[in-house]
Amino acid sequence: MKKRRPEPSHILLKKIVGVVGLCVVFALCGLGAYGITTLFYNHTGYHPNDLVKALVHSVLNCMLFIGVGMIISFFTMSRHRGRFQPLIDALRRIAKGDFRVNLDIKLANEWGELVDGINHVAEQLNEMEKLRQEFISNVSHEIQSPLTSISGFARALHNERLSQEERKRYLEIIESESKRLSKISDSLLKLTALEGIQHDLERKRYRLDTQLRALILACEPQWMAKEIDMDIDLEKVEIFADEDMLSQVWTNLLGNSIKFTEAGGKISVKLETVNGEVLVKITDTGIGISKENQERIFERFFKADPSRNRANSGSGLGLAIVKKIIDLHHATIVVESEVGKGTTFTITFVQTA
């Protein structure tokens, strides 16, 4: 059971003063009621029995107390309303979608915590709104690029003077851009689905080394075409995880290593257990990633080098999907890279019994 925190001494003192004040006001109202009734009886010459006097005195006392309370409330209401009006206005602004709220007012006790809470909520909502707008802008940009190419080359095909070779090349570009558009759409759907996962993954125990070896073999046509030396060192390891999701992780990381490693380069994949942890290291001798870009490569739509040619350019969503899947497994992914020398991705899982 949660223990209630003791109230600060100054708050307790204020409460005691308030109670004493009410008692004093009630006593003064009683004296006033007694004076009024005494004057009334002396003036009229009417002298009822003690019971009637007590009832009249009590009723008049309560009426005076209520009246004094209403007068005090009337004069203090405007002051309190002026104090809390900024809170009301801030909540109305947030409800209308304006999250640029920052209350700079000082209130004591729980009211001060309420002000801090409103500021915190507004700040978080404002950050989410900025991310939403940036996301929409990035999606629009990524979709617009292939659509512009498809539209432009489709119009060019209407030219009857095009040679067969030119017509074929334009059709290949349209097909390539259509695939690129489809890949962006597929990646967005995957990322949206991953963001919506609230429950446990479909975990099972399986051989991680077997999975990695199978995926490396599946990529063999790509790394063989570039004459890349593939160094594989896989310890026999069982892991309790979502096999299908981790397959997306390894496919993406291997695909990036192959894509950005020059012909004749080298890629190594190492799997080992160290101090109860499962480590997967994928290292390449590719173009590398600068220090400033390493901090952002897991952001949606981020591309380390926007000037790369279209053949090597992705949607910028692959590593965001990788990071999300790794986070869902309560694992970590770390990148180490140097421009012109290569990149190493290290994924660490806590081994469970």
TrEMBL record:
GO terms for cellular component: plasma membrane. It comes from the Bacteria. SUPFAM superfamilies: ATPase domain of HSP90 chaperone/DNA topoisomerase II/histidine kinase, HAMP domain-like, Homodimeric domain of signal transducing histidine kinase. The keyword DNA damage does not apply. The chain crosses the membrane at residues 12-34, 54-75. Residues 87-130 form the HAMP domain. It catalyses: ATP + protein L-histidine = ADP + protein N-phospho-L-histidine. Its EC number is 2.7.13.3. GO terms for molecular function: ATP binding; phosphorelay sensor kinase activity. PANTHER family: SENSOR HISTIDINE KINASE RCSC (PTHR43711:SF26), TWO-COMPONENT HISTIDINE KINASE (PTHR43711). This is histidine kinase. It comes from Brevibacillus formosus.
